[in-house]
Amino acid sequence: MIRYIFIFFILPSFFCGEAVAESSFNHPGIFVSLKQLQYVKDNLSSEPWKSAYEKVLQDPLADKNYEPTPWSTVECGSFSKTNNGCKDEVRDAQAAYTQALLWKLSGETVYAENVRKILNAWANTLTGGHTNSNGPLQASWSAEMFTRAAEIVKYTYTGWPQSEKDKVAKLFAKQYYPDISRMFTGSYACYNKNWHASAIEAMLNISVFNEKKNWFNDAIKKWRSLVPAYIYLSSDGSRPKNASWCSLNNSQINAHWNNPKSYVDGLTQESCRDFEHTAYGLAAIINTAETARLQGVDLYQDKDSDAQKRIIKAMELHSAYQTTALSDKLCQNYDGYKLNTKGTFEVGFNQYSVRQGLNLPQTSAFLVSTRPTKGHFHYLWETLTHGLVGDRNHGN
Q1: Which residue positions does the secretion signal occupy (predicted)?
Q2: What is the mean pLDDT of residues 365-378?
Q3: N or C end: fewer C-beta atoms under 10 angstroms in the chain?
Q4: Which helix (H) or strand (E) holds 379?
Q5: Are 119 and 150 in contact (CB under 8 A)?
Q6: 107 within a domain of the structure (yes/no)
Q7: CATH code for position 333
Q8: How many structural domains compose the chain?
């Protein structure tokens, strides 16, 4: 009898179609790593980190006497017209992340204790989740920041008891993840896609903190469907692609894309709405890729979504319209490109230009003119954490 010996090779996820390898999660591994933060700490006397650090320290989110304002139920209507805990929750989430960064950059335990206090306050209070029309988006924005803070402190601060960490994991699983998941069903499925981008980042972050590989893989799958549906390339054809959870016909797509003058490489679903909401979407898309990278999954160069070309084209296009005052109109409804993408693109630029050595002249000029930045809602302090740090944030 002939016996056959089969040798199986398990390839890292960088080289295969699967989302995550069978190895355990890397910690801390949500958006920032210890090597990256140590590099920033070692260079706080140099630019761009010096000015960025000073900007953080002067912000109310960095107050050493910060007090959280938790709610048992957070109710948020459109544009937060019903605002029962909405602004308080986002502010607390931003403060938690800000102070987690300061804990690692300064070494002062007061910052770690403040993060612990904020997270415990919400873990012990929030029981009714997120309601009203903006509930899923509110949950996403808050979770994107809370998880970053929790991840840093969980793995670097010995003063946080395990029982409290477990409560926070339960908070993310019970009070955030279900509300965020609603984003991809019913009437929410075809909302402006910065919603879905934030939802995906939040879901990925929660999966890392709670070590849920099935949640991680689901977020990666959704990201790969979102990116081609949010950023257009001419290779897509005469119209943008659909996301798997939202199917629009040819007569609906222009309205969904806010009536562009034409579809050009790098245009996003919200470019002709305004550049601020475009920044919301692009920031979450890029930041998801950054966390995935720390977990061994290279979404930046993902072939399924043609991510590298899409993200670079989007950054270059939107930077150009803010730095060189291009005369060509992108949109039928306005040509002022109100508001802007200030506060983001540092992470994407660091990946494609600093790490990979690609030329992004428009993005470079835009970042030079806007550094150091703060950000909005679910993205903060990108100049401090990712401005020109290079490859030092891979691994811990």
Answers
A1: 1-21
A2: 96
A3: N
A4: strand 379-380
A5: yes
A6: yes
A7: 1.50.10.100
A8: 1
